[in-house]
Design goal:
Layout: H1 3-10, H2 20-23, H3 25-29, E1 35-36, H4 48-60, H5 70-84, E2 93-96, H6 99-110, E3 116-121, H7 126-133, E4 137-142, E5 144-145, E6 150-151, H8 154-164, E7 166-172, H9 184-196, E8 200-204, E9 232-236, H10 239-242, E10 250-254, H11 257-270, H12 277-289, H13 291-315, E11 320-321, E12 329-333, H14 343-351, E13 353-354, E14 356-357, E15 368-372, H15 377-392
Parallel strand pairs: 1-13, 3-4, 3-7, 7-8, 8-9
Antiparallel strand pairs: 2-10, 5-6, 9-10, 11-12, 12-15, 14-15
Helix pairs in contact: 1-13, 4-12, 5-12, 6-7, 6-11, 13-15, 14-15
The chain binds pyridoxal-5'-phosphate.
Length: 393
């Protein structure tokens, strides 16, 4: 599908629809009158098949206690296998009300208070919040930024695991905010260190459908034909891919039967949410019939990213845009053009665009901004033009 066709068919005005991205900028940015390029959801209607499936379920008119039908598992497993070669077994799959809720639950299942948990910064900020809110010790290994791309610092990871007796690593794959789709070799090296050092891994793969570059996405549970699977819990959801975040449903994939039993005991004890009828109706339809829609979205993200990258390269080469292999989030280094302490004022008062500021993802993010490209080319252009104009003035 051409970018213009995707936009014409699916773009929608979300202002005054109780959207956090559009209608809740006042509290974080001082005004609702900014171009919203922050929180990670999209300005596009879901595939028609999703709306039709939801309508059909709603017309039935009953929302009594429901089970997850085998057709759901079939659709999800087929999607994983056909698009990524990830082979799943139905018995490994559990449901949460969101990936962050699932991470928090797993931190409780897999570690004790005061245990050390590692993240690779800069990284999606709730990782750090969850660790600290649950009274675990946060251990940070910084990714290495070679100017174009970020890499894992394997020596530092091993050294800090040993020094701090790390018990659990939270990995983001593909990586928000630095846009990497980790290669098979990188994941293998990371997972091997964790196996040797007896560190369990949570692999947050919520962005795995959003691959823009040439790297093939590999799930942590299928690296080396599943060699590390027993040491990993994989999390994902249909929500980021298909714009379903408010329906609140995540997959918790646990191949290791002992870990699964511990997880089940914990979830049962707290009677935690384990799935949502309408979310599953929507996700099943998306997995069954949303492939073309997703390909259209990926084309649009690529288009938006190339525009952003080329415009800055030509007109403001000191703004450094990190290559985007995956996610729809551009990671932009503003340090050569605006002093980090003045960046917030610059973006909100001069450019008038709402972004995520890099330091929320860890100290290494200071002076960067994260821009959400799952929006119309028009909004990306407004952002780029306003930024260039503000720099000129
Ligand atoms: C890496 C990552 N994990 C989790 C989430 C949020 O997932 P959920 O809304 O299911 O908690 C996001 C949202 O941006 C994300 O980028």
């Amino acid at each position: 599908m051409k970018v213009a066709d995707f936009v014409e068919r699916y773009a929608v005005n979300r202002k005054n629809t109780d959207s956090i991205k559009w209608d809740a900028m006042e509290s974080g940015f001082g005004s609702n009158d900014l171009v919203p390029m922050w929180i990670a959801d999209a300005e596009f209607k879901v595939p028609e098949a999703v709306t039709n499936a939801l309508k059909k379920r709603i017309e039935h008119g009953v929302y009594g206690y429901s089970l997850t039908p085998s057709s759901y598992y079939d659709a999800y497993c087929k999607w994983q296998e056909e698009r990524y070669g990830t082979e799943l077994s139905q018995e490994w799959i559990r449901f949460g009300s969101g990936v962050v809720q699932s991470i928090s639950t797993l931190v409780n299942v897999l570690t004790l208070p005061e245990d050390a948990v590692m993240v690779l910064e800069p990284v999606y900020h709730p990782f750090m919040h969850v660790i600290e809110e649950n009274d675990r010790r946060l251990v940070v290994s910084n990714l290495i930024n070679d100017g174009k791309q970020y890499k894992m610092d394997f020596d530092d990871i091993r050294e800090k695991i040993q020094t701090n007796q790390v018990k659990l690593l939270l990995n983001c794959s593909p990586h928000n905010p630095v846009g990497r789709v980790w290669s098979n070799e990188e994941l293998e090296q990371l997972l091997e260190i964790c196996r040797e050092e007896k560190v369990l891994v949570i692999s947050d793969e919520i962005h795995h459908d959003l691959v823009i570059g040439n790297n093939k996405f590999v799930s942590a549970i299928s690296v080396n034909d599943g060699l590390y699977r027993d040491n990993v819990v994989m999390l994902d959801a249909a929500s980021k891919t298909f714009n379903l975040a408010a329906l609140q449903c995540s997959h918790v994939v646990i191949a290791n039967p002992q870990i699964r039993a511990r997880y089940d005991r914990f979830v049962n004890k707290l009677h935690l949410p384990a799935g949502n009828l309408l979310a599953q109706v929507a996700a099943q339809a998306a997995y069954q019939e949303g492939g073309d829609w997703l390909d259209g979205l990926l084309g649009l993200i690529k288009y938006n990213f190339n525009y952003l990258k080329n415009e800055f390269a030509i007109k403001a080469p000191d703004i450094e845009v990190t290559d985007l292999e995956g996610t729809y989030l551009a990671w932009v280094d503003m340090r050569k053009v605006v002093e980090p302490s003045k960046l917030r004022n610059f973006m909100e008062k001069k450019v008038k665009v709402a972004v995520n500021y890099g330091e929320i993802f860890g100290e290494a993010g200071l002076g960067f901004i994260r821009l959400n490209l799952a929006t119309t080319p028009e909004n990306v252009e407004r952002t780029v033009v306003a930024l260039l104009e503000a720099l000129e003035n």
